[in-house]
Amino acid sequence: MLKVLIFFARFFIFWLLFFLLDRFIFVCIFLKNIPNASFTEIVAVFYHGTRLDLAAAAYMIAVPLLYFVIRFLLTQRKIEMHWLKMLNKVYIILFSLIAVVNFNIYREWGSKVNAKAIGFAFSAPNEALASSASSPIIFNLAVLAVLIASGLTLNKLILQRELQPQRTPVWAKALFSILLTGLTFLMIRGGFGVSPNNQSMAYYSDKQLLNHAAVNTEWNLIADVLKSRHSNHNPYLYYPDQVAEQQVKDLYGIKKDTTTHILKTSRPNIVVVIMESFTADLTQTLGNEIGITPKFDSLIHHGLFFSRIYSTGNRTDKGIIGTLAGYPSLAAQSIVKFPEKMERISALSGELLNNGYHTSFFYGGQSEFDNYKAFILSHGYDLLIDKAKFDAKDMNSKWGAYDGVVFNKQLQYLNTAKQPFFSTQMTLTNHEPFEVPGTYKFGNTDNIHKFKSTAFYTDSCLNDFLSRAKKQPWYKNTLFVFVADHGHILPKERQEVYIPQRYHIPLLFFGDVIKEEYRGKTMDQVGSQIDIPATLLHQLDLSAAPFVWSKNLLNPETKNFAYFSWDNGMGFIDNKQCVTFDNVGKMVLYNDRPQDAGNTTILLKNAKSYMQSAYKHFLSL
Question: Where would one find the signal peptide in this protein (predicted)?
Answer without folding.
Answer: none
